[in-house]
Give the backbone structure.
Amino acid sequence: MADADTLRIASFHTTLSADGPGLLLADIVRGDDPVIDATLAVIARARADIVVLQDIDHDAEGLALAALARELAARGQDYPFRLTLRPNTGRPTGHDLDGDGHSHWRRDAHGFGGFNGAGGMALLSRHPLGPVTDFTATLWRDLPGSRAAEVTPEAALPVLRLATVGAWAVEIAVPGGPVTVLATHAGTPVFDGPEDRNGIRNADELRFWQLVLDGWQPTPEWSLPDAFVLAGTLNVDPMSGEGHRDVLRALLDHPGVQEVTPTGARGAATADWADPVPGDLRVDYILPAAALTVTGHGMLWPAADEDPALHEMVETASDHRLIWVDLRF
């Protein structure tokens, strides 16, 4: 963290998703995977107080996340408080969602994934966790103004969930008062057809948070606190690429949040993808509540001639880059 009165929150879309259940844990324990080693180095370099991770495999007992935390502690970054919840990725719906005559393939899951828990989310914190509200089971059809019926078989509407990966509200007891992290990983708006199913779903995943900012309560027992930070992968760039940019723009422009724009070697882009299509895009975001005081922000993506070692490290770790925001408490 920058100083004793500053809280640093980071978001990092990793590539900590293996080919099958339990393999990530085995890779971490084995200790010779260059991607995992680079990922650990990137997280340690950020020195954040709270880290939201995307694309990290989930296991029911949190063993892989605990192993990752042990390795980070060995690098001088201790995160005694952790959270991992079962994602929608790889969770079967039992329905043929893509119309190919099969109902139990990857594209028929609530979120694309080869197994239950593939490519989920996790949270690391130096501070104790308070109440956790998991919106991951929210049905797509139950979102106000939902477009699910346009692109979903009627039989699947009573079961299909909105979140491709997950959506959480995690209260964290930090010095100066609690802050709630709204962790999210929306699905990609590509890899579909002219019906734009993935694009429409991505747009509704973003609208979920816009509605929350407007005062909508996904569950009756939870309401948005004053001190919050929305952090994660939204998978849409404000200017380029696929997706419903008008929906993203409405979220970024909402008076309830501040659009903080960390920059790196490619400007505001947070993902290093093939040129010219899709190209380098800004798809990862940290949006603090309007009431919070932002004192700094950044991205771990130096130019190759600026810091060659760090440049190589972030390229090895993921095609996304870690971003962070400092808040005054």
Q: What stands out?
A: The chain is about 20% helix and 25% strand. The first strand starts at residue 6 and ends at 16.
